[in-house]
Amino acid sequence: MEAVQSQLHQPVFTVNFKPDSTGNLEFGIVDHSKHKGTLIQAEVNNQTNSDWTVDGITLTAGKAKLEQSMSFDTGGGDTMLADGKFVDAYWRQVAKSKKQGGNYVFPCSSKLPDMEVSIFSAGAVTIPGSRFKGAGVGSGACLGLLREGTSGYGRGSIGGPFFMSMFVVFDQATPAIRFAPQA
């Protein structure tokens, strides 16, 4: 981004990934036709080349709740990483889910809980539970895309389930992250 920033209309890039492996990255513009509603803005407190950290994030899924700084890792990744107690509380809501080597597996036919992501009082968005369903691992079981862990920076990490649900703007000038549900 830094290499081409002087040639861009705005110092931004957007992420609009879809669950079917389509989508795009765009540089220099924000195409508002690609999202629904108002973009929620979160100020970034630490930014490196691929890690944008936001404080004051609350994750809620049924009885599971977590307040934590989270990294929005622009390097990708199909999972979401969070504190182990929150992850365990999330998967306890899914019948017959079980932990296997740091990951959870569950019957592929299960309905997974939606997750609300809120930033201070700026607003909240919902990640559909279906976005936490990974690939089949045999015998009718699927891999869960919410796992215990931290990014390389020691924080939870917002990953694939979020990016496959939201239109996300990374604003280098502010710096800030803005997001809303995809259109």
UniProtKB/TrEMBL annotation:
Segments forming a coiled coil: none
Pfam families: Asp
Signal sequence extent: none
Domain Peptidase A1, first and last residues per copy: 1-180
Keyword Transmembrane among record annotations: yes
UniProt entry keywords in alphabetical sequence: Membrane, Receptor, Transmembrane
Keyword Chaperone: no
InterPro entries per UniProt: PEPTIDASE_A1 (IPR033121), Peptidase_aspartic_dom_sf (IPR021109)
Gene3D superfamilies: Acid Proteases
Designated name of the protein: Type I transmembrane sorting receptor
Species this protein is from: Heterodermia speciosa
